[in-house]
């Protein structure tokens, strides 16, 4: 598997799925993804757009795409961590100046547990949930319970996904053929994958000419793919600013900041306090943001 093949297979899947479910053909289509999908989503959109230009059937009602905390040029994205750390007062000015011209992407790459000599399997404490239902349905403890005093860990959300996705009733509701999936896993790290696209910037340049709606947003506390890197490559696109840096509100409070460009509502926005990825840290604010965008309400 590789970047280009992943995009082509996704396009093929969409064609087959829409043929099997023609009732959805008239629906507006937006392609969305986060993190590393910042590379593949623009490629998928390019595949769809090219197919429409060549008259492929079924014709998709493509309107735009959404990226959150997106990888665009991995080396440059990672290299921006030094500048981000300085802007957040995590390192001194002297250290920042010392390292700003050094190619730092490789030495800053985090050491993954799965690559260690003795990887530690994922584990979790069942006391963070409680069985209240006679049919053994799991419900999160209320804020008044003892478990709520524990620090929130993002990995808990991932663990819940395993319980949900491997539930036979869930799989039946999703239309998954019984027996086709023995054990669902969030990330298949045994998959051989080649990163054959160093940057997705050229796809953004091509798609701008098509006039699609684009929403790109990040958390301003994301040090994995810092917002400073995202701002830099968007600036490289040489877009005309329609509405400069301004706040957007949720419940009367500043939830983030946006820049709107004149090219078909090309929007860059940030969720204040959000990490990687923003909705995991600021779900309420990000839901409000994307709901407004889909409704064509100003951000």
From TrEMBL:
Listed Pfam families: Peptidase_S10 (PF00450)
InterPro entries named in the record: AB_hydrolase_fold, Peptidase_S10
Gene Ontology terms: biological process: proteolysis; secondary metabolic process
The family this protein is said to belong to: Belongs to the peptidase S10 family.
Gene3D superfamilies (alphabetical): alpha/beta hydrolase
Protein name per its UniProtKB record: Uncharacterized protein
Organism whose genome encodes this protein: Acer yangbiense
Molecular functions per Gene Ontology: acyltransferase activity, transferring groups other than amino-acyl groups; serine-type carboxypeptidase activity
């Amino acid at each position: 598997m590789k970047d280009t093949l992943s995009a082509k297979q996704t396009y093929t899947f969409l064609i087959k799925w829409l043929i099997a479910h023609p009732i959805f053909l008239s629906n507006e289509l937006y392609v969305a993804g986060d993190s590393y999908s910042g590379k593949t989503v623009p490629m998928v959109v390019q595949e769809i757009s090219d197919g429409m230009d060549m008259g492929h059937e079924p014709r998709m009602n493509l309107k735009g795409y959404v990226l959150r905390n997106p990888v665009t040029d991995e080396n440059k994205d990672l290299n921006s961590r030094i500048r981000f750390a300085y802007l957040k007062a995590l390192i001194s000015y002297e250290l920042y100046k010392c390292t700003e011209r050094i190619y730092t992407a490789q030495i800053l790459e985090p050491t993954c547990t799965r690559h260690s000599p003795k990887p530690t399997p994922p584990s979790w404490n069942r006391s963070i949930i409680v069985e209240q239902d006679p049919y053994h349905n799991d419900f999160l403890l209320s804020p008044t319970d003892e478990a709520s005093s524990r620090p929130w860990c993002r990995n808990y959300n991932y663990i819940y996904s395993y319980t949900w996705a491997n539930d036979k009733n869930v799989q039946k509701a999703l239309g998954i053929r019984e027996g086709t999936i023995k054990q669902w896993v969030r990330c298949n790290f045994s998959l051989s994958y080649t990163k054959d696209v160093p940057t997705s910037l050229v796809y953004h340049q091509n798609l701008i000419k098509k006039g699609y709606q684009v929403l790109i947003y990040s958390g301003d506390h994301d040090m994995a793919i810092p917002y400073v890197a995202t701002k830099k490559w968007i600036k490289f696109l040489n877009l005309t600013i329609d509405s400069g840096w301004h706040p957007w509100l949720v419940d009367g409070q500043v939830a983030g900041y946006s820049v709107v460009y004149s090219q078909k509502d090309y929007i860059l926005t940030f969720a204040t306090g959000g990490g990687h990825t923003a909705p995991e840290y600021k779900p309420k604010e990000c839901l409000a943001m994307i709901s407004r965008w889909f409704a064509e309400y100003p951000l």
